[in-house]
Amino acid sequence: MVYFLSHKNEDVYSYTFRALNGDVSKIQAADLTRDAGVRIRPGYSYYGRPIEPGHVPTKIELSGPRRPIADIYGAYGLLVSATFRDVVERFEPSVHQFFPMELVWADGTRAADRFWFVPCNRLDTVDRAKTTFEFRNVWYLDGSRKDLVFNRAQIGGHHVWIDKFIVMPTPAISEALKAALDAAGISGANYQHFPETD
Fold it and tell me: Where are the beta strands (DSSP E) in 22-170?
């Protein structure tokens, strides 16, 4: 199985957040070179390439009441705990970017320490013969009940990646990494699973 990883929001309301330093609007991939996949544009998104660190914030203010902050939290992508980072680093050391991030409440008191997680593998991993979505130079996943199937040979030994042909991608992870995250008790994870073929 392959899993898309996202934040499982269990808050009663959708609370806002804002960067207190840096400039999120100026963050972009360090390499904007075109390839056969989704076009890499200036601005922050999950492209599967490292980002330039100069404008990355180090402090984010969270609105709403004080509450526990899960190991995976959604703000400008995924903010993850040191435990999450350590598990990923065991599988793929020094591959992905983890920028230290202090989360604070509106009164300035500390809410949590997290890392801004940037997956840095950009791969072509969807099995085009077995997937029932129409391939139009990219995969548009429209929420329908069509099948998205991944190819184990194309994934190779990778454990975290962005599929370069999926529009608006979510980090994909291996079954082995998911099992390790579960064993570590990672909270706040939402997993959407997909089959793999050989």
Answer: 59-62, 72-74, 78-80, 97-105, 110-118, 122-123, 150-151, 160-163
